[in-house]
Amino acid sequence: MANLGIPRNTIEVLQRHNFIFQKKYGQNFLIDPNVLERVIDAARVTEEDCVLEIGPGIGTMTQLLAERAGKVIAVEIDRNLIPILEETLSPYSNVTLINEDILKLDIRELVQGQQGRPVKVVANLPYYITTPIVMGLLEGGAPLKSITVMVQKEVADRMQAGPGTKEYGALSLAVQYYAEPEVVANVPPNCFIPRPSVGSAVIRLTKHKTPPVRCHEKKMFAIIRASFNQRRKTLANSLGNAAGLGVSRDRVVEALEEMGLPAMVRGEALTLEQFAELSNRL
Ligand code: SAM
């Protein structure tokens, strides 16, 4: 029976192994059974699923995942955690533990051979590399069904934001191109040991079966990046000045007018559909 998700048990394991937290690895371990349940429920894990967990820590969530999923692949960078994980996960024969940096792994290769099992990512992510991990998972083309992760609250808000808000930007559009985001819980710092200095949130990204817009992906994302590089500038000025895009300010104004948008519009006002249309017109 999984039993690590209460502070007393976590502390006992950490002390017995003389474990020292490594700040550089973003180690904030979950010690709240209700939050752990919330994450796993939000991911809708069933025994049909293979779960990829990034950063299992001492295996608190891994144990619960192993009890619900058909298979769990857990990738942990910190080799000091491996002997602990070997102990805490020893009752579970459906867990594969990999001591690696997730950013160096080919996720597509990793999840291949799951005999057609849907693969879900479930993790309490290390916050210092949230964006490269999430974008790598979305862009990498691995057959993932959903990604349910604990992230910094501010990052969850940016992923879910819509046009016209201050949180809206290149990350919102990139995430929403690949998936439908939904914040499912806000989590305060006292649910972790040690306490992080920021609030956290659980977000579920359900991958689209087909992209919601038709466009040349690379070109649209180059336009999106250039549009948000200088938020205070109009879209025509940002894109007209951007090196590498090869469009003139006049052409941008013309395209915006063709779309019924004012020449002075800023990037933060455009929806994903409008960015796709602009990219196709340019
Ligand atoms: N899942 C555990 C929990 O909820 O208690 C730990 C979560 S902690 C926020 C993040 C975990 O990710 C740590 O165990 C850390 O060592 C690990 N980690 C950090 N960078 C990593 C990387 N590049 N690849 C794999 N794991 C990493």
Describe what you observe in this structure.
The chain is α/β, with parallel strands linked by helices and 282 residues long. It has 2 domains: 7-207, Rossmann fold; 217-281, rRNA adenine dimethylase, C-terminal domain (Helicase, Ruva Protein, domain 3, Orthogonal Bundle), CATH 1.10.8.100. Helices cover 39% and strands 18% of the residues. It contains 12 helices and 9 strands. The chain has helices at residues 7-16, 33-43, 60-68, 82-88, 107-111, 130-139, 153-160, 170-178, 217-229, 235-241, 249-258, 272-281; strands at 29-30, 50-54, 71-76, 95-99, 119-124, 144-152, 179-187, 192-193, 200-207. A 7-stranded mixed β-sheet has the order 4-3-2-5-6-9-7, sandwiched between helices. It has a two-stranded antiparallel ribbon with strand order 1-8. The longest helix is centred in the C-terminal third of the chain and has 13 residues, at 217-229. The protein is elongated. It starts with 6 loop residues before the first helix and ends with a helix. The relative contact order is 0.11. The mean pLDDT is 95. The site of S-adenosylmethionine (SAM) has 23 residues, from β1, α3 and β3. S-adenosylmethionine is lined by residues 25-30, 54-57, 60-61, 75-78, 81, 101-103, 124, 126, 129.
